[in-house]
Amino acid sequence: MTDSQNHFADRFYQAIAIKGAPVCVGLDPVFDRMPDELILGQSIPADDQQAADVFEAYCMGVLEAVAPYCPIVKPQLACFERYHGPGFTCYHRVVQAAKSLGILVLADGKRGDIGTSSAHYAAGLLGAPDGADALTVNPYLGIDGIEPFAKVAAEQGKGLFALVRTSNPGGDALQTQKLADGRTVSEMVADLIADFGASEPNFVGQCGDSLLGAVVGATKSKDGAALRARMPQQIFLVPGFGAQGGTADDVMPLFKADGTGAIITASRSVIYAYSGKDGVDWKQAIADAAKDLRDQIKQIIA
Predict the structure, then answer these.
(1) 67, 93, 111, 281: most buried, per Cβ within 10 A?
(2) Residue 9: exposed, middle, or buried by beta-carbon count in 10 A (0-12, 13-18, 19+)?
(3) Per-residue confidence (pLDDT) for residue 49, from 0 to 100
(4) Which of the residues 19, 74, 110, 256 is marked catalytic?
(5) Separation of alpha carbons 44 and 31, rounded Å
């Protein structure tokens, strides 16, 4: 085990105690869905810099709105990287703004490659002074593809979330396939994540959970209990709640018996809560949606 101030899982649980529930808001900005006061009727940006400027103003407003209710946010790197240098600069400013508001940052990049490439990704996204607190990674190249991420995460007090059972329908074609020993592919990956997540003493925090968590979609809850049993020390990142169809009943099996062990994340249902509502303050609409998300999950785990 390691110092609680230098372990992601410990810091995450401390943040939950302050905000009230383990909820995450995804930051997935799309230009033509921005509040009209920011884009003035435009459907596409004039250039990369304009997109970055709009996204920065929008994300700052979202962060201020969700800060009282949300211990962690999840910026989708693709939304920022699309706009090249200005977009990535915007992303880093958003990371710093979130931290200044007491919000942890989980970068959603789903990175994964051979060792050297993974080491560069880890250094850039987790190890830099303005790096995120956690990162999603893809374990389907094998454990050696995420070892460099784990090394940096352990050194920096950061976290990882490995794709295990994803919410997209197409994932079924791979993740539900049966192996010769009777396990599904996702169950095999779960076992790998559980074993590797406890393979070093400093991977496990004082809370008993590993810095290496797992992505398990809310829409795949029929597999949730079995995956939870296989990964008792993993925090589950649970996408798909809200706009993607995940319900309270879907996410309940993904928590541990004591109500810990999962982060419920929602994006569109919160960050675009103002859509189709004429005359509403977009920041207030987002704040109201974030509070509602927090209250729903708080009730589930009560």
Answers:
(1) 111
(2) buried
(3) 98
(4) 110
(5) 6
Sign, CA dihedral 243-247-250-255, equals: positive
Residue 260 — pLDDT band, cuts 50, 70, 90?
very high
> Looking at the predicted structure, is the pLDDT value of residue 290 above 90?
yes
User: How far apart are the C-alpha atoms of 11 and 30, rounded to whole Å?
Assistant: 30
Sign of CA dihedral 60, 65, 67, 69: negative
The mean pLDDT of 163-191, rounded to a whole number, is 95
Block residue for tokens 């009282």: 68
Q: Find the mean pLDDT for residues 89-93.
A: 97
pLDDT of residue 192: 98
For the chain, the average pLDDT equals: 94
Q: At what angle do helices 48-66 and 84-100 cross, to 10 degrees?
A: 20
**Which amino acid, 176?**
T
Task: Compute CA distances 127 → 20, 150, 239, whole Å.
Answer: 29, 11, 25
Respond yes or no: is residue 256 known to be catalytic.
no
Give percent above pLDDT 70 in the chain. 97
Asked whether 159 and 8 are in contact (CB, 8 A), the reply is yes
What distances in angstroms separate CA 246 from CA 88, 117, 123, 140, one per listed residue?
A: 31, 34, 34, 25
For the chain, state the CA radius of gyration: 19
Q: Does domain 4-301 fall into CATH 2.40.10.340? A: no
Question: Among the residues of 7-145, which ranges form H helices?
Answer: 8-19, 36-39, 48-66, 77-81, 84-100, 115-122
β-strand pairing of 134-137 with 212-216: unpaired
Please tell me which residue, 33 or 279, carries the higher pLDDT value: 33
pLDDT grade, residue 220 (50/70/90)?
Answer: confident
Q: Specify whether the CB–CB gap between 202 and 1 falls below 8 A.
A: yes
Residue spans per domain, the chain: 4-301
Q: Which residue has the tokens 């600069």?
A: 89
